[in-house]
């Protein structure tokens, strides 16, 4: 595509060099990846400033630069007010506005996003549609999986992935939309047909100023819904009526709203809920009829996840019988409430709870079914929200009989300091908990302690297959470590 064509819809300041007759083969934001005839977009990030890498980009063959200030370079420099936003617009245009043609559902909220995307994948697959999923665990196109760095990729990778999905006949894309992504404009330009809200509770207060600012970021998914090019597809906001934040989100969107609830009158409701250690049953009450659901998923929070997914599926005109078939068939999501079963006489569950609310939900669920002692192995991520640390430790002790506090991706922080943040305000006796910084030893300790009918929850890392210490990711899988510990102890 020619540079002047690419810039046609981009608001930029006057440039006194010609931008005509420059062929652009690729758009990039990382000077290290620039190939000949690229357009290099300078992003001022959190740790680095892309404007410092113009020379390297040009040396690698960039034939034009987009920047936020005039920069000396022997190729044209186009100056714009906000390169991050412009990058999203350029990416959308460069890849041919893929979401104009690709039906797209976005899921935001503090907890449950990954779960809801995989519920929706199963529902649409049962409806004979090829799906594409983007989120925390991976990107998936049909059955092919691709690794990801972020829950929501940057705008370039995102639009490229959508184009790839279209080329591989994906009929329904489903993605997690993190608050970081909304705030940084990573999804600017994406034409969502359905925007889903799961819930709001504390997380990411390292990044967002306060919980209102966090909600403001989430609300962008709803305020931007339908603001892109019209696809002649109806738009819906799907909101959790039982979460007070939905009031704000309802006011943020100009599009029709569908609500779901377990407690109040709503468009889609769950009634006659029966929670059990082996699964969950409820009646799904919808505007197009009612149907009984018999799911293997455990816990009240999963009823909410199933409601969110069902409401979106109804908005996309999936028949109720298909929704039931899908929800009844799902056995679980990778790393979410995943049992490690070596036929031992105590239970070990690996879960991705890494926020106060999710930890409380999952422990409450376990506590309801526990016959004997509950152990929890849990830590808090380094370089992330410090204010959630004492809250998570308090919740662990409130519900579990014994907590083992350990490390969870300490990143560049001192693990002892993170553990100190978790435990220094605890008012309970120290007999209730251990501090074992090494996660492998912590898991081994819990396994050694467990007796018949006890339950061990290993929280925080779920599907992750690494422990990040400093900037290095070391191989580490809670499930594998637990399995080895169980075998070592003997059945
Ligand atoms: C704080 C944050 O979100 N940072 C994201 C951001 O990185 P950054 O702004 O720090 O980038 P930077 O390293 O400063 O570089 C700035 C620019 O210089 C360029 N550069 C840099 C070096 C060089 O040699 N040449 C060069 O051109 C870079 O390519 C970039 O364009 O942009 C990067 C590219 O898009 C992201 O990968 C990165 O996510 C980091 C890894 C991260 O940990 N993010 C977390 C907090 C996050 O976003 N999490 C949410 C999930 C939350 C949830 O699940 O609820 C997510 O969506 O993943
Ligand atoms: N609806 C929910 N409400 C509260 N907690 C939930 C809910 N769904 C799942 N959880 C808990 O949160 C954990 C993470 O779930 P999931 O991965 O689906 O959320 P997420 O929003 O994608 O998280 P992340 O922001 O890290 O990507 C689960 O392991 C479970 O403990
Ligand atoms: N999406 C979450 C993942 C947290 C996972 C936990 N294991 C940690 O490293 O803190 C985040 O970026 O905060
Ligand atoms: Mg997720």
TrEMBL record:
Q: Where does meso-2,6-diaminopimelate bind?
A: 384, 408-411, 460, 464
N6-carboxylysine PTM sites in chain numbering: 218
Q: Identify the species of origin.
A: Oceanobacillus kapialis
Q: Record's superkingdom?
A: Bacteria
**Name recorded for this polypeptide:** UDP-N-acetylmuramoyl-L-alanyl-D-glutamate--2,6-diaminopimelate ligase
Kindly state the positions of the motif Meso-diaminopimelate recognition motif in this protein: 408-411
Entry annotated with the keyword NAD: no
Binding residues for ATP, per the UniProt record?
109-115
Catalytic EC class: ligase
Designated gene of the protein? murE
Pathway recorded for this protein: Cell wall biogenesis; peptidoglycan biosynthesis
Annotated GO MF terms? UDP-N-acetylmuramoylalanyl-D-glutamate-2,6-diaminopimelate ligase activity
* Domain Mur ligase central, first and last residues per copy: 107-313
UniProt keywords (A-Z) are:
ATP-binding, Cell cycle, Cell division, Cell shape, Cell wall biogenesis/degradation, Cytoplasm, Ligase, Magnesium, Nucleotide-binding, Peptidoglycan synthesis
Give the E.C. number(s): 6.3.2.13
Catalytic activity reported = UDP-N-acetyl-alpha-D-muramoyl-L-alanyl-D-glutamate + meso-2,6-diaminopimelate + ATP = UDP-N-acetyl-alpha-D-muramoyl-L-alanyl-gamma-D-glutamyl-meso-2,6-diaminopimelate + ADP + phosphate + H(+)
PTM annotation: Carboxylation is probably crucial for Mg(2+) binding and, consequently, for the gamma-phosphate positioning of ATP.
Annotated family: Belongs to the MurCDEF family. MurE subfamily.
**Family matches, as NCBIfam families:** murE, PRK00139.1-2, PRK00139.1-4
Q: Where does the chain bind UDP-N-acetyl-alpha-D-muramoyl-L-alanyl-D-glutamate? A: 31, 150-152, 178, 186
Mur ligase N-terminal catalytic domain location: 23-95
The record's annotation in SUPFAM superfamilies points to: MurD-like peptide ligases, catalytic domain, MurD-like peptide ligases, peptide-binding domain, MurE/MurF N-terminal domain
The protein's required cofactors: Mg(2+)
Query: Does the entry feature the keyword Transcription regulation, yes or no?
Result: no
Q: What does this protein do?
A: Catalyzes the addition of meso-diaminopimelic acid to the nucleotide precursor UDP-N-acetylmuramoyl-L-alanyl-D-glutamate (UMAG) in the biosynthesis of bacterial cell-wall peptidoglycan.
Q: Where in the cell is it found?
A: Cytoplasm
Mur ligase C-terminal domain: residues covered: 335-462
């Amino acid at each position: 595509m020619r540079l002047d064509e690419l810039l046609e819809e981009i608001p930029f300041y006057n440039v006194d060099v010609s931008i005509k007759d420059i062929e652009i083969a690729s758009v990039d934001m990382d000077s290290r990846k620039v190939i000949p005839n690229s357009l290099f977009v300078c992003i001022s990030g959190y740790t680095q400033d892309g404007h410092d890498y113009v020379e390297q980009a040009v040396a690698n063959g960039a034939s034009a630069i987009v920047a936020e200030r005039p920069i000396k370079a022997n190729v044209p420099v186009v100056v714009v007010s906000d390169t991050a936003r412009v990058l999203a617009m350029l990416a959308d245009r460069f890849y041919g506005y893929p979401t104009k043609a690709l039906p797209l559902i976005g899921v935001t909220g503090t907890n449950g996003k990954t779960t809801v995307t995989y519920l929706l994948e199963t529902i649409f697959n049962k409806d004979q549609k090829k799906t594409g999923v983007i989120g925390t665990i991976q990107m998936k196109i049909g059955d092919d999986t691709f690794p990801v760095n972020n829950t929501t990729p940057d705008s370039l990778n995102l639009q490229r992935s959508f184009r790839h999905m279209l080329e591989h006949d994906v009929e329904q894309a489903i993605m997690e939309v993190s608050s970081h992504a909304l705030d940084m404009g990573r999804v600017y330009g994406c034409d969502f047909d359905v925007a889903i809200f799961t819930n709001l509770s504390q997380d990411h207060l390292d990044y967002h100023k306060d919980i209102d600012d966090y909600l403001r970021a989430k609300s962008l998914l709803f305020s931007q819904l339908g603001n892109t090019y019209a696809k002649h597809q109806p738009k819906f906001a799907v909101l959790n009526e039982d979460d007070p934040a939905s009031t704000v989100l309802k006011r943020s969107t100009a599009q029709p709203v569908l609500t779901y609830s377990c407690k109040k009158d709503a468009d889609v409701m769950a009634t006659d809920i029966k929670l059990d250690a082996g699964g969950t049953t409820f009646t799904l009450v919808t505007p197009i009829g009612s149907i009984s659901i018999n799911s293997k998923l455990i816990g009240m929070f999963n009823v909410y996840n199933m409601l969110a997914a069902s409401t979106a599926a109804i908005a996309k005109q999936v028949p109720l019988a298909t929704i039931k078939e899908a929800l009844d068939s799902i056995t679980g999501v990778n790393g979410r409430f995943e049992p490690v079963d070596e036929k031992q006489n105590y239970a070990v569950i690996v879960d991705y709870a890494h926020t106060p609310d999710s930890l409380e939900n999952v422990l409450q669920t376990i506590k309801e079914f526990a016959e004997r002692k509950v152990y929890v192995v849990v830590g808090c991520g380094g370089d992330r929200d410090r204010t959630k640390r004492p809250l998570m430790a308090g919740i662990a002790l409130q519900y579990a009989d014994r907590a083992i506090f350990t490390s969870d991706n300490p990143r560049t922080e001192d693990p002892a300091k993170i553990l100190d943040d978790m435990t220094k305000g605890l008012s309970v006796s120290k007999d209730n908990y251990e501090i074992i910084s090494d996660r492998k030893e912590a898991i081994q300790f819990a396994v050694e302690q467990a007796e018949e009918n006890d339950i061990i929850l290993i929280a925080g890392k779920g599907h992750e297959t690494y422990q990040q210490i400093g900037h290095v990711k070391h191989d580490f899988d809670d499930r594998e470590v637990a399995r080895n510990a169980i075998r070592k102890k003997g059945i």
